[in-house]
Specification:
The protein is an alpha+beta fold and 583 residues long. The chain is built from 6 helices and 30 strands. It has a 4-stranded antiparallel sheet with strand order 3-30-29-28, with no helix packed on it. Helix 3 packs antiparallel against helix 4 and helix 4 packs across helix 5.
Length: 583
């Protein structure tokens, strides 16, 4: 190695003296020197052993040389000694080479052993870690198993409680069904008893009337021939008084218009069978200001309606009563309360005579009152869910009701019984009657027209959304519907494809029972909004006419326009009623 270094240095010196050295050659020289130093350290022991061996060899050769210089008799022995010396040198060199190889192998084996020891230590560390992790996992598994056993015990307890609760629920459900059936049975019995009592009263009034007529017929009549005139005489003042009263009552009854003949037995009285002249409106006046604001009910108000004479107003709310108000000189004056409903009122309707009020209720029934009696005259039961609308049909002896149970029922007031049921299978929100046609609005975004003569659906009209209310124009040619998409739709019943939508910025249908109405002349539309304002549209111009605000603090549920066209009343969910007028 030293000779190689000297040779490399000599070559470098010669090349340095001859021409400039390339840049890469000094780098190679430095790398060779570094490798020589690194390898030289590993062969130090071998070099020392080899040097000692050479010293011993040189010593043996000296001894042999001295022996050769001595005189010898036998030349062959000197030759053999030389051969043996050569063999010894050769053997020594081979042994030295084998020693070097063995040392190199020993070092390699030592490195391998060290690597294996390192790997073994690393494996032992991993094994120790795995054993610790295994112990941890076993501990966690034991905790999880204990937790699972605890959860299993809790689950068994909860399951047992659930089974007990389910048994109790079934028992309570059966008990509720029995109570409901009992309540319906008692309600029907009460309705039948009330109908029977009213019929007895009606018959008693008829008997009294017949008795009075018979008494008047038995009165003696004397004719004074000298005077040429007739006069009524009675044996006493006691007999004259009933006659005069009977004549006056008879005259009053005969002066009524549109008298109808009463047939058979009925819960309706003679006065209820008589039509009375109904007022009409030439031109409705658009209200501009509020005349009166009052809290009309104890809870929210759902319905409001004017009578045909426009001097009486009825309101119904969730406090289960119908209140009557006299409308005089721009003021609402409390007149009375009609009781009998066990839940909230959803709609109100006056009959054409203005003597009776029909109301729908949350208690799955419709109730009929006389204005002079706070107790219901009739209670119509049969729906399985709340009754959302109740209207008099074209005949005052028939009533139509719509319910959330998806049925429309036709009732005969003479028998106080349901005569026909129509299954719609969709929530009925409102209905109106027009001669022989019944129109109902539903939550499935459809308006259905029914022929009362054949009791079948003759037409379906699409709506913009869930229908919340219906109203028909005074000439029965146009139908107004209010929908949950914040739109009022006007449909021409003669041409069902002709539709006009009325919208306005700020108008929002506040509930699923918001009511919209026509003005009595059919020129305007009115509806209450969720923002507490009354919106009035002009039908001819198809735009917003006015907006009445700042009087309601909650969503307006219903609006009513008097038949005279003079007043508008709006009611809201916070029990407030507002009377509006143009001046």
């Amino acid at each position: 190695m030293a000779a190689m270094n000297m040779e490399i240095n000599a070559n470098n010196s010669e090349r340095g003296s001859g021409r400039p050295a390339d840049r890469w050659k000094p780098h190679i020289v430095r790398q060779l020197k570094l490798r020589d130093q690194a390898q030289h350290a590993g062969f130090q022991d071998l070099i020392r052993f080899y040097t000692r061996l050479l010293e011993k060899t040189s010593m043996a050769s000296g001894i042999l040389g001295s022996a050769s210089r001595l005189p010898s008799a036998d030349c062959s022995s000197s030759v053999s000694s030389l051969l043996s010396q050569n063999e010894l040198k050769k053997t020594t060199g081979e042994l030295a080479y084998q020693v070097v190889e063995l040392q190199q192998q020993i070092k390699i084996k030592d490195c391998v052993v060290e690597q294996q020891h390192a790997r073994m230590e690393e494996a032992e560390l991993r094994l120790a870690g795995a054993a610790a992790a295994r112990r941890d996992l076993r501990a966690r598994a034991a905790l999880v198993q204990e937790g699972n056993r605890e959860l299993k015990r809790e689950y068994d307890g909860v399951l047992e409680r659930h089974r007990g609760t389910e048994r109790t629920f079934r028992e309570e459900k059966l008990r509720g069904c029995r109570l409901l059936e009992d309540m319906i049975c008692r309600k029907q019995q009460a309705a039948a008893h009330m109908n029977s009592r009213n019929e007895r009263r009606s018959r008693a009034r008829e008997a009294n009337l017949q008795k009075e007529l018979q008494t008047a017929a038995r009165m003696n009549v004397s004719i004074d021939g000298s005077a040429g005139s007739s006069s009524l005489s009675a044996p006493s003042s006691r007999s004259a008084s009933p006659k005069s009263e009977t004549q006056e009552s008879t005259e009053r009854r005969h002066t009524r218009l549109f008298r109808r003949k009463r047939r058979g037995n009925s819960v309706c009285s003679v006065e209820e069978d008589l039509y009375s002249p109904v007022g009409f409106c030439l031109a409705a006046r658009v209200p501009a200001r509020a005349l009166q604001v009052l809290d009309a009910h104890d809870q929210g108000i759902n319905a409001v309606k004017f009578s045909g004479s426009s001097d009486l107003l009825a309101t119904g709310g969730t406090d289960r009563v119908v209140k009557l108000w006299d409308v005089k000189a721009g003021m609402l004056t409390y007149r009375g309360t009609l009781d009998g409903s066990t839940e909230g009122i959803t709609s109100i309707e006056f009959d054409p005579t203005g003597m009776r009020i029909l109301a729908a209720s949350y208690d799955k029934s419709a109730l009929l009152w006389r204005l002079d009696d706070s107790v219901p005259k009739l209670t119509l039961t049969g729906h399985s869910r709340k009754v959302t609308a109740a209207r008099f049909s074209s005949s005052v002896r028939q009533v139509v009701t719509g319910s959330a149970d998806g049925t429309v029922r036709l009732w005969d007031l003479q028998r106080a019984a349901c005569v026909h049921v129509v299954e719609v299978m969709s929530y009925c929100s409102d209905l109106v009657c027009s001669e022989s046609c019944i129109i109902s609005g539903h939550y499935d975004c459809k308006i259905r027209l029914w022929d009362a003569r054949v009791s079948g659906c003759v037409q379906e009209l699409p709506a913009q959304g869930k229908v919340t209310s219906l109203d028909i124009s005074p000439d029965h040619r146009q139908l107004l519907s209010c929908c949950r998409d914040d739109c009022l739709q006007l449909v021409d019943l003669r041409r069902s494809n002709a539709r006009i939508c009325f919208r306005s910025e700020g108008f929002k249908c506040g509930s699923d029972s918001t009511k919209a109405v026509f003005s009595p002349d059919g020129c305007f539309l009115a509806a209450g909004s969720a923002d507490g304002a009354v919106y009035i549209w002009n039908v001819a111009k198809a735009n917003l006419e006015t907006r009445l605000a700042d009087k309601h603090s909650s969503s307006i549920s219903a609006v009513a326009w008097s038949l005279s066209g003079e007043y508008v009343v709006s009611v809201d969910k916070s029990r407030r009623a507002v009377l509006w007028r143009d001046i």
